[in-house]
């Protein structure tokens, strides 16, 4: 969103958003790495860790996603451009995939493989594309 | 261009969601009788996002309410207000020991699933605290409820109990404890001495079934696995999913048979004098998989867990696979039906029930969370001929849940017969002991 002088409420929302939004991204990214390690090694610790990270990532995503929902479609709708809306959709799809992935990771042992790796990868790729787009949109 | 992309992403999300929801729905197609016997049909294994689940809510027995019995039989309650009664042993003088125990609750919560699943499963009343004690019941000359005595206290999640001569062996979850016993005693105050230690890390499956050989020289211990299918790592499965043989004189033990996921009951088949076991098979690959079983147990035999079931049917959830072990896995003798959760075994050649129940095995089926509609929650009889099962299981005692399958009154565990030949059943949800005889 283009920067102009913002009301105090919006500044607070943006601050909360910027503090919390990296947490799920980090969780899902670590889960992907642990899934790959488990896929290759079969050492159970890693898939347990991945299951916790996906669950924590989803919980941590609730507040920043709600703030983003409000900003893109309601409070800052006029300033939100196509990139903001696409980022919102990419995040939404990533979260849906992560929810499915959390259930998938409730399967016992190697039952979550290899699909778990693919879903973790899809989550991370979608979030990365969204972040990349936002970061580069004013580049000439 | 952007709209096309958005459309495409939206469509993928929809497909994923529909797949997720479709995966949640799975009703059983085969009832236990259809999936019993030597060659049960085994449908294709499925992986779920949410496994089939149905847990009735604890209600308990109201005054005068009782399980139902097959025609020709009569049931009465001989003891109530027990603390999670699980196994029964009739002593030579006719007194009946009731072992009261439940899980020690030492399994760590290692996954988000474990956190949620334990809460759901415990709604049924199956997870309530056990008494960690043994109660002695003595028949009252006047009939009705039996005399009740606190026999042994301060045990540690006990399950199996056996008497050899004047020594009583109690299988706590972590060790076999030995008590001196004199005929007619109604209380043992002396602390037991540790006789042999048992595998007791984690204790996912905590019950230790116990059976003495006829000559009293050996004790056999059923030790369950520490997981459903190795999801805790195979390093915690040392001496797990096995039947141990302990030499009573030396206390030395060895693995008698392995690969039996959870051998919850042991018995001697009267005609062949062969060791038999009931076992609970794995969950979460379908409402009709994997049938629990009753099998003869061969010295040195390997029965598949976790790598395969019913011989060579491989379980894809195990990493790394072991084709060498799968190749030698023995197919169990007799399937009891999927998720019936057999927890009590008693062979009988003669009893106070009608003649058709005279030669075979009684099995107490506790019921499982992993099946819809419910199965098990019954005591069944498997007729034997020439030392082998001959025919489908017949249900003797049932009606442990409400007709709409929403409420749970009780759940049968250990079965035995008393001095008069009546069938006794421990009910750990209803906290009662039931006695079944022929109808007058």
Furnish the topology, listing elements before pairings:
The complex is a heterodimer of chains A (140) and B (440).
Chain A: H1 8-20, H2 22-41, H3 44-75, H4 82-104, H5 115-136
Helix pairs in contact in A: 1-3, 2-3, 2-5, 3-4, 4-5
Chain B: H1 2-22, E1 36-37, E2 57-58, E3 68-69, E4 73-79, E5 85-90, E6 96-100, H2 112-121, E7 133-138, E8 147-152, E9 161-164, E10 167-171, E11 175-180, E12 193-197, E13 208-212, E14 218-223, E15 242-247, E16 253-258, E17 263-268, E18 275-279, E19 291-296, E20 308-309, E21 313-314, H3 323-327, E22 334-338, E23 342-348, E24 360-365, E25 378-385, E26 388-389, E27 394-398, E28 407-408, E29 412-417, E30 423-427, E31 432-438
Parallel strand pairs in B: 2-28
Antiparallel strand pairs in B: 1-22, 3-27, 4-31, 5-6, 6-7, 7-8, 9-10, 10-11, 11-12, 13-14, 14-15, 15-16, 17-18, 18-19, 19-22, 20-21, 23-24, 24-25, 25-26, 25-27, 29-30, 30-31
What does this structure look like?
The complex is a heterodimer of chains A (140) and B (440). Chain A is mostly helical and 140 residues long. Chain A has one domain (8-136). Helix content of chain A is 79%, strand content 0%. Chain A has helices spanning 8-20, 22-41, 44-75, 82-104, 115-136. In chain A, helix 2 packs antiparallel against helix 3 (44-75), helix 2 packs antiparallel against helix 5 (115-136) and helix 4 packs antiparallel against helix 5 (115-136). Chain A is elongated. The mean pLDDT of chain A is 93. With 440 residues, chain B is mostly beta strands. Chain B has a single domain (59-438), classed as Neuraminidase (6 Propeller). In chain B, 8% of the residues lie in helices and 35% in strands. Chain B is built from three helices and 31 strands. In chain B, strands 3, 23, 24, 25, 26 and 27 form a six-stranded antiparallel sheet that branches. A five-stranded antiparallel sheet of chain B has the order 1-22-19-18-17, with no helix packed on it. Chain B is globular and about 60 Å long. The model of chain B has no long low-confidence stretch (mean pLDDT 93). The A-B interface holds A 42-45, 48, 51-52, 55, 82, 86, 89-90, 92-93, 96-97, 99-100, 102-111, 113 and B 2, 5-6, 9-10, 12-13, 16-17, 19-20, 47-50, 110-113, 227-233, 284, 316-320.
């Amino acid at each position: 969103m283009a920067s102009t002088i913002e009301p105090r409420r919006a500044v607070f929302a943006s601050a909360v958003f910027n503090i919390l939004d990296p947490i799920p991204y980090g969780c899902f990214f670590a889960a992907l790495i642990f899934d790959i390690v488990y896929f290759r090694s079969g050492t159970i610790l890693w898939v347990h860790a991945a299951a916790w990270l996906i669950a924590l990532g989803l919980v941590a995503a609730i507040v920043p996603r709600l703030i983003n929902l409000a900003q893109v479609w309601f409070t800052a709708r006029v300033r939100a451009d196509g990139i903001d809306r696409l980022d919102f959709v990419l995040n939404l799809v990533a979260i849906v995939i992560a929810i499915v992935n959390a259930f998938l990771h409730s399967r016992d042992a190697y039952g979550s493989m290899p699909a778990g790796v693919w879903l973790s990868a899809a989550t991370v790729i979608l979030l990365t594309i969204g972040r990349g787009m936002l970061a580069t949109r004013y580049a000439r | 261009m952007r709209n096309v992309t958005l459309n495409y992403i939206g469509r993928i999300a929809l497909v994923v969601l529909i797949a997720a929801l479709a995966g949640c729905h799975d009703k059983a197609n085969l009832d236990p009788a259809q999936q019993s016997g030597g060659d049960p049909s085994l449908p294709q294994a499925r992986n779920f996002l949410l496994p089939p689940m149905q847990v009735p809510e604890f209600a308990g027995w109201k005054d005068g309410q009782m399980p139902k019995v097959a025609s020709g039989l009569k049931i009465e309650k001989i003891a109530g207000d027990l603390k999670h009664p699980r196994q029964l042993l009739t002593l030579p003088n006719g007194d009946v020991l009731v072992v009261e125990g439940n899980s020690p609750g030492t399994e760590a919560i290692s996954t988000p699933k474990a956190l949620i699943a334990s809460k759901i499963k415990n709604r049924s009343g199956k997870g309530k605290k056990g008494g960690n004690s043994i109660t002695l019941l003595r028949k009252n000359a006047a009939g009705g409820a039996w005399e009740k005595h606190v026999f042994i206290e301060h045990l540690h999640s006990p399950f199996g109990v056996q008497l050899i001569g004047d020594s009583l062996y109690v299988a706590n979850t972590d060790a076999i404890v030995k008590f001196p016993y004199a005929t007619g005693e109604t209380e043992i105050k002396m602390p037991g001495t540790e006789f042999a230690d048992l595998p007791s890390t984690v204790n996912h499956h905590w019950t230790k079934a116990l059976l003495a050989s006829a000559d009293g020289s050996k004790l056999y211990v059923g030790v369950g696995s520490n997981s459903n299918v190795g999801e805790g790592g195979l390093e915690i499965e040392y001496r797990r999913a096995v039947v141990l043989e302990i030499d009573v004189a030396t206390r030395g033990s060895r693995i008698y048979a392995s690969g039996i996921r959870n051998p919850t009951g042991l018995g001697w088949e009267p005609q062949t004098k062969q060791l038999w076991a009931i076992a609970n098979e794995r969950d979460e690959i379908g409402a009709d998989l994997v049938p629990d079983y009753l099998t003869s147990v061969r010295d040195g035999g390997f029965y598949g867990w976790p790598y395969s079931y019913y011989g060579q049917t491989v379980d894809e959830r195990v990493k790394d696979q072991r084709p060498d072990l799968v190749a030698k896995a023995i197919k169990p003798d007799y399937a009891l039906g999927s998720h019936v959760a057999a927890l009590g075994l008693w062979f009988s050649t003669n009893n106070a029930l009608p003649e058709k129940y005279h030669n075979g095995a009684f099995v107490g089926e506790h019921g499982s969370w992993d099946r819809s509609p419910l199965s098990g929650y019954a005591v069944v009889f498997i007729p034997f001929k020439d030392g082998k099962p001959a025919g489908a299981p017949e249900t003797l005692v049932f009606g442990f849940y409400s007709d709409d399958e929403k409420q749970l009154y009780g759940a049968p565990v250990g079965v035995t017969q008393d001095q008069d030949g009546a069938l006794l059943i421990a009910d750990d949800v209803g906290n009662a002991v039931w006695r079944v005889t022929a109808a007058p």
